[in-house]
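User: Continuing from earlier, I have the next pair ready.

Assistant: Great, send them over.

User: Here they are, in order.

Assistant: Folding the first of the pair now:
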Amino acid sequence: MQLYKRNGVYQVTYQSTGGKQVRRSLKTRDKRIAEQKQAKLVITVHEAQLFGKEPARSFKEVVVNYLEAKKSTPGFERLQYACRPLVDYFDNADVTRLTEADVEGYINWRSKSVADGTVKRKFGVLSAAFNHVIRKHHWQIQNPCLKAQRPKEPKGRVRYLTHSEARTLLEAVESPLDASGKPSTGRHKSPVLRDFIELALNTGCRKGELLNLRWEHVDFSTRLIYLDQTKSGEWQTVPINEAARQVLAQRMRLRTDLCPQTPWVFFHLRPARNTQVGDRVQEVRQAFSAACARVGIKNFRVHDLRHTFASWLVMEGVRLFEVSKLLRHASIQMTERYAHLAPDHLHDAVANLGFSAHFQHTEHPIREVASQNGLNS
């Protein structure tokens, strides 16, 4: 077992029982304390090798191993963000001693500050991280999530704009004014926001799918957008309607005029700090929130543009199965949150169920029905 310093802190490296190289911080700058911790760890590792006893492992080691394996997968940044509150809570806890009660403690703690859906997603990440080190690194530990009481199932959120609200928002985005009626600047104005909103409303794409969209994945001849960075991690296609085509054509003209070499559909039109013309637009959330606030649209997030796309389709009479395909949902159950927006179709479904009611007001129901159908002898 090798003892060394890194950024002034003593570390050790050794080979685990599974043959993997393990690096661990001893969390001290004092050499004497580091040597004591090293000696204790040597005994623990030998016990693991001789008697099959799993050495103490910190929760941070679980997260590091899991993130290392996911580094090149889509959504890695989002996964890193999801791991932060887990590390904040479990810190350097010995995972060989963690139980379902500890996991439930995390769920209760996190539920006090975030929505049920967020807690459920973090619980999924936690369980996946444990499964990774058990299956891939052969850690002899139990996944404490398996027996834990699962987080509450989140209620499906459907917040959408009316067509009138959408027009008002687009007008505000195109000509933003501050409180005094003067043109807005800075964070309240984004030269790409109108195009982004229009494209989101006409395709149902997620924010990341649009901001990561490259021109090589836009096919005007087939009127299809090809998405490689999707939530499922698989290639998917999105049809381009006429409104979406016009937005993309306009952005193509901008690209030709300003930066023909940029691969991005949503690119910066002017230089700024650490940003060149043609660089990818990283975020629109701040400008979007400011625009919504200016026109009095409350409780509306960027992702709700996708809900608006789906809601408008359902209200136009498009079947849920087709909406599910356009949203690229894994199952139609995910789309059923929009079912209540199609009341006319529900009325149509029960329109022919008046047969029994007709019977209870007829003295001779069989004769009456036969008479109406010209079947009397």
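And the other member of the pair:
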Amino acid sequence: MTIERGTRVRVIRDPHHGPSPWPDQPTAVVGAAGFDPEYEVVEASDGPTRSYWVTFDDPQWDAEGDGPYVTAQVLERYLVPI
């Protein structure tokens, strides 16, 4: 499944690996200024997967307490269109 630029999404927690990179399950829009294309294929622990640039609705802190971030690169499996 390809998620198109401009799609509103929720960044969900990883149900198998702790709080995930974005524990507050923020909402965002796919695409971020200066990042094109909006996704790239990256090597994840379970093989190749798409990773999308998103722009958060509100600045976010990651699971390690770093931030706030306005944009981030997020694996496709954590994105749910809303």
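Worth noting for the second one:
The longest strand covers residues 47-60. The chain has a mean pLDDT of 89.
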